[in-house]
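Section 3.1 - Work completed
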Amino acid sequence: MRMLYGAVHLFLYFVFAHPAGAAAPQVLPPALKVADAIEQSQKFMLEKNRQKALQVLNQSLEGLPQKSRSRARLLESVQQLSSTFFTDKGQRLFEAAQSSVFENPEVGMARYREALALEDNNLLVLMALAHAQLAKQDCSGALQTLGLARQLTAHLQEPQLLEMQAYICAGNYEMFRERFKQLSVVDKNLEYFAQYLSALDLIQQKMWQRAHGLLIRVTELRPDFPEAYSALHKVQRELGERENVFGENYLKLCKAVTVRERKLYSLEPRLCVHTKEVANELEAKD
């Protein structure tokens, strides 16, 4: 009797929930949806269509909770597929650009562009090109390059932060603030840089005390990030304080900076460019 009642109840549910002629919706479990999205995106990558591959993943990311496993899996795929090289020649050009860009920026950037022509807007190459453009203070060029990165995906935080850096470079603080508001929960490894950029915005607004507090927080998160001390040195002068400790720390860190630090802090393309200026200010105080 119970089995009959259960069968009737199930029958009535489908009659009223799905009238004649209406197809019952197929709801896939979230994990299966993620697996299907990743599989579909990989098929597009085999066709060397990065745009469509990432479009599938981007659509699947919409609406997912920030800390969900499904989101983490999809973001991992976005990171991987956005930076995969399709050709050996493209990868060799990218590596050659990396080797030459510090000594000869123009040659390096030309090689990055050659690589992009072969690599369907590889995010790794776009980021490297934008980094080189910002190092040369080509703010509009960097924004154009990072616009291509945003078209690929708006879900990775490093490109978002570099784009915000480019808006600061261009003096467009309104767009910087708009992008900053859109920034989701910041990865703990990138929190220092988000706060550093926010401090630069406060400095531009002459909000010295708030900038000072935020920059102190940055030095607590990353004690060996030179630019926080350069900014603190500037804030300290504006506040009329005479101590030289921040400027001295900046010069000390920059003197010891290696390729490792430049890679670690690659989101700041102009790392340690103010050493001469800070050194002259410290000498003038003495």
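Second construct:
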Amino acid sequence: MGRIKVTAGLVIVGALALSAGVASAKPLPRSQWKAQADAICTQMYADLSTIQDELFGPNSPNPVPPGTPSATELAAFAAELVPVFKEAVVAIDGLKEPKALSRRVKQLKATAFEEAAAIEADPGILGLPEDPFPGTTKIGTKLRLTCG
């Protein structure tokens, strides 16, 4: 149930953002691009929080004390997290960004996909106290996004 809700939320936000960008061949003004990208980030964070609560929260079938998920549980989390993360990145990449941001947006997508691949290869990364997406976070911060 949660995965369907999560995907539906991202599809709606992504479709709205993409339709706004596709409707005009011209790049979006920076403020409009940022607002749409931030909306995608906000939805992604909400969806990831839902997934985390469903897998590890007190109401999940197997609640896990904070900081103690097993390798199997981290693999299950990665299997849910990575597609949501990638969908959000693709939706942001699909926006018609201002030309001045084009290089950074391409870097954001490339870095995000590299970091997602690393998590797919080793879901244990999600159990570490560090940000599992440090490069993506750094570029997002430079773009002044809420997911930075």
